[in-house]
Amino acid sequence: MSNFVVNTTATQQQMLQEINSSWEKLFAAVPDQLRSSALDLESGQSELAVRRQFAEWANANTVYTKCFLGAGSYRHYIPSVVNALAGRQEFLTAYTPYQPEISQGILQAIFEYQSMICELTGLDASNASVYDGATACAEAINMCRSKGKQRMLVAETLNPQYKAVIKTYFQFSDIEIVEIPMREGRIAAKDMQGLLDEETMGVLLQSPNYYGVFENCSELRELIKAHSLPFVLCANPLSFAVSANAKELGADICVGEAQPLGLDLAFGGPYLGYMACSNEYLRRLPGRIVGRTTDSNNNRAYVLTLQAREQHIRRERATSSICSNQANCALRCAIYLAAVGPKGLREVAWQSYQKAHFLADKLQELPGFSLRYNQPFFNEFAISNSTSSDTIIKKLRANNILPGLKLSDSEMLWCATECNSEDEILEVVSLIKEVI
After folding, report:
1. What is the pLDDT of residue 207?
2. Domain covering 66-77+341-435: architecture
3. What is the pTM of this model?
4. Which of 242, 257, 213 is nearest to 360 (CA)?
5. Domain covering 80-336 assigned CATH 3.30.230.30 in the classification
6. How far apart are the two ends of the chain, measured CA to CA in Å?
7. What is the rounded distance in angstroms from the CA atom of residue 206 to the CA atom of residue 249?
8. pLDDT per residue over 201-232, tens digit each?
């Protein structure tokens, strides 16, 4: 078989010259310790030999069978039907379903996903998904734009990675991002009230927030509505199975990461940002929306509709430049929700809640360990630990357990889901006891 070369060195240099850049500039954002000038391979090896070498390198990775790490990505059981159906060849395509006459299958799949997100959040409309939860937050801020208003209030308790993406989105725009400080792990109404003024365009809160704590959305919502501002809620969609949904909490726009609904951890991606809103904000919703209609023969049909991005309307009128609909990820989410059903979803959420609280109780029995924020939480929580976080992490990793996230040398963020057994939780506590 002859070698396949994507492009020649001369072509590469021509492309770099066109954009006035270099390889070094293009990869400057990658830390030096993660970069390599070349693979340590002998020249002239066969494909079989190269595959063996890559397999050997891959086996050097540690695959943890017990996981207590959350902070935005969560390990849940994924029924085998999800992989079996989502992996079918008719779904594995990068083709955009612009031509409905040949795209009814994928259009219906996206429509079903949108319908389930609406049912879960209680809101009126959902788009065909965006890149991830962080992108969904940034796009939601765009939806809040209002003439003469340029300040968006964002909770300090929002996931730091989401805040970083928001900062990137708006660093060169006329929108100012202002953080609402937290008290004891969540936002206080009096702190938010001092920041609300005629320049404020909206408020973005996360609940359960980065520390797993449920925000006091009822009190905060009343304050937001008193100023006639849009309320954007970022939430783990699984939490709606055991708590009030976005509509009941008074949100106008609900966004977040749908990874808990049928997607593997996969080293952080690709993930699935979900977005839903009330009818008032429907025409500001970015990306694509699939609608259901009837064809000339009065049969049910699906089409792309209400596309508020620059590829379909005049650029100056566009509200977004998002072009992806993450269709395969959305398909996996729809299959997962259909497979587990409302009862199964409640069971997954309830077990996650119970096991997280069981883990929290057991950790607090250890000397010098206590709940960092004494607030209601869902499936993750922050613990203050008298023993060094690094010491705990080293001990648990040595026993094939992926521990919680280090927040500081004396604080860790722990998570539990239905995948964590009682024996695993007791093993974690026992190993930390040994360290103490």
Report:
1. 96
2. Alpha-Beta Complex (3.90)
3. 0.88
4. 213
5. no
6. 60
7. 12
8. 999 999 999 999 999 999 999 999 999 999 99
